[in-house]
Amino acid sequence: MTKLKTTAAVTIAVVSIIAAGCGGGKSNDKTAVARPSANPPLYRQTHYDVETNWPQDASDRKVGHYLESVWHDPANLSSKLVIDSRASDGTAPPLAAAELAQIQANQLPEYHERSFKKVTIGGHPAIHWAFDVAGEGYIEYFFAECGTSIFLHGSTSLVSYEPFARFYGIAASSVKILCEG
Q1: Looking at residue 7, what is its pLDDT?
Q2: What residues are paired with 126 via a beta bridge?
Q3: Engineering a disulfide at 92: which of 19, 24, 74, 97 sits with its beta carbon 3.0 to 4.6 angstroms away?
Q4: Is 62 helix (H, G, I), strand (E, B) or coil?
Q5: Which pLDDT score is estimated for 146?
Q6: 165: left (phi over 0), alpha (psi -120 to 50) or beta
Q7: What is the mean pLDDT of residues 2-28?
């Protein structure tokens, strides 16, 4: 791996870790994956489910103070869908977390922003950010609901970006937060 790609990969990983600190109803689709609730306040305080037919690599793996679930495209192993979740208490609101990650990524060589905007996904307000760095396309969503911060992020090669972006938008809009009590 070139020094530029190594630097970009490390910086994106750091941006993702920082961003993960930010911050429905049950799906009828048979491909929905119900997420178990973890013990608050260390992880998240609710359930979520997401519809995807991609194979899952990790389910609620503890990474620092959040839980990470990872899926990959069976046709392109470089395309990943990652969901990080944790309790919202003590974390930055979604817009602030997204802006901080954006400022940090903007320092990377070859950074090119595709979009940064407020959107609604799955019925809740979110921040959508898409950008390219060192030959990879990234898509990220930040939102919080029911005391849980959710950070969806994924990456793929620039050649695979358009179909990945369509799939990722559908997967992101399928995320359902199941508020308890």
Answers
A1: 39
A2: 119
A3: 97
A4: strand
A5: 79
A6: alpha
A7: 41
Q: Which residue has the tokens 């495209």?
A: 73
Domains recognised in the chain with CATH numbers: 3-178 (3.40.1000.10)
Angle at 110 between CA 23 and CA 139, to 5 degrees: 30
- The three-state DSSP-derived secondary structure of 6-57 is HHHHHHHHHHHHHHCCCCCCCCCCCCEEECCCCCCCCCCCCEEEEECCCCEE
Gap between the Cα atoms of 113 and 105, Å rounded: 9
Phi/psi of residue 102, each to 5°? -65, -45
Cβ atoms within 10 Å of 113's Cβ, excluding its own: 13
Give 95-142 pLDDT, tens digit per residue. Answer: 999 999 999 999 998 999 999 999 988 778 999 999 999 999 999 999
Amino acid 102: pLDDT: 96
